[in-house]
Predict the structure.
Amino acid sequence: ETGVTQTPRHLVMGMTNKKSLKCEQHLGHNAMYWYKQSAKKPLELMFVYSLEERVENNSVPSRFSPECPNSSHLFLHLHTLQPEDSALYLCASSHPTSGRTDTQYFGPGTRLTVL
Amino acid sequence: RKEVEQDPGPFNVPEGATVAFNCTYSNSASQSFFWYRQDCRKEPKLLMSVYSSGNEDGRFTAQLNRASQYISLLIRDSKLSDSATYLCVVNSQDSSYKLIFGSGTRLLVRP
């Protein structure tokens, strides 16, 4: 299944590094999402982009910076992260229809470890 | 109260068993409901949407009870491959984009 792809799949970084996560969707959707999943916790929505404009930002620390250059690509830029930021970062896409929250399709995720 | 609550399990059942999970949600105005499946160290994948009239897909049946604000998932004739975490998902009234995910119920199907 290659509807939503993410790279890299695994990332280990130090607290002073800068790295970027990439997501690409091939489903023709117009909304893209970043989620964080920590061990034994539910998925936490971080950012939502619709038609390349950010529509949701759930009080995420500024060390996480999203970028959506077009409706098929989404990036998450990381800098000066903390060990507690270690988690699985999932990208998703959907095609919201009027008045209805549509199904979201997830990429395989990037497993991030911050040392 | 959590917006979406699930029993974390694990539910440990033999192959061939029937198992049911419930999930409660707090917002009575919620309109969209889903069950997702997540395998260990993998991404969540849509199992089925849940409709007001209930729906069935093979061995899986989902029901919605709006009065009591819960949804259920019934799995018949469990297979080893059904072992996974099942996530209950409800839309948020704050935004048409936002889904609220439960913490999941873990199912282990043993031979």
